[in-house]
Write a structure and sequence with these properties.
With 243 residues, the chain is mainly alpha-helical. The chain has helices spanning 30-51, 59-78, 87-103, 116-138, 153-168, 170-198, 204-241, and strands at residues 15-17, 20-21, 24-25, 28-29. It has seven helices and four strands.
Length: 243
């Protein structure tokens, strides 16, 4: 979260290493930098946490084990044993979003999960992936997912398009939920922080509110990573079991 006069300026993508290939701008940006840091942090936790399996785990090992068990239990409860083969993807997705959210709360940091193109890209990968899994496992029978059981044939003319539309908007709702929460929270932090800085001593009240909002955003950062991951699990469960 950057303390700036313009609340939305913190979401501007700025090139760090300008680079163009023909007409395409492939510059290394602040968004790419924070994504790289998130990947490095997650990789460090996994590598260091599993390098030595000590009887009394250290902080990093405890964090790695906690995240591992948390995601594993999430998959078991929503998908079942069959979902464990997709554990690496869901674990990576959860940790990447989690640390993307948390890094955005560091002063002068950047929240790449506050960019709709980033959240939509992840949601699109989830949507395409679970759809391909469903088709691979069930073939043309996968289309029965859009036909509610026990419904009179006459109503199917209305319900099938609704079910299909509900399925197709999944990547949009999944991406917008994460993007909107990050955008709104960081904007509020910037507004209250800027207001507190502009009125001097009288800014103690808005500064106190800003601190409360910051801790709320910490909770939201974790919660939104969880919501994205568990919805991915639910979509995967639908593809595997056609519920």
């Amino acid at each position: 979260m950057a303390l700036q006069l313009e609340p939305l300026e913190q979401f501007v993508i700025k090139p760090i290493v300008p680079l163009h290939i023909g007409k395409f701008d492939v510059s290394f940006t602040n968004s790419a930098l924070l994504m790289t840091i998130a990947v490095l942090v997650v990789s460090a936790i996994v590598v260091i946490g599993t390098r030595r399996e000590e009887l009394v785990p250290g902080r990093i090992q405890s964090l790695g084990e906690l995240a591992y068990e948390f995601v594993g239990n999430m998959i078991d409860e929503t998908v079942g044993a069959e979902g464990q083969r997709y554990f690496p993807f869901i674990f990576t997705l959860f940790m990447f979003i989690l640390f993307g959210n948390l890094l955005g709360l560091i002063p002068f940091g950047y929240s790449f999960t506050g960019q709709i193109i980033v959240t939509f890209a992840m949601a699109a990968v989830v949507f395409i992936g679970v759809t391909l899994i469903g088709i691979w496992r069930h073939g043309w029978h996968f289309l029965s997912f859009f036909v509610p059981h026990g419904v009179p044939f006459v109503l199917l003319v209305l319900l099938v398009p609704i079910e299909l539309l509900s399925y197709l908007i999944r990547p949009f709702t999944l991406s917008i939920r994460l993007f909107a929460n990050m955008l709104a929270g960081h904007t509020m932090l910037a507004i209250f922080g800027g207001f507190a800085a502009s009125i001097g001593v009288l800014g103690l009240l808005p500064l106190g509110l800003d601190i409360l909002i910051f801790f709320l955003e910490l909770l939201v950062a974790v919660l939104q990573a969880y919501v994205f991951a568990i919805l991915t699990c639910l979509y995967l469960n639908d593809a595997i079991h056609l519920h």
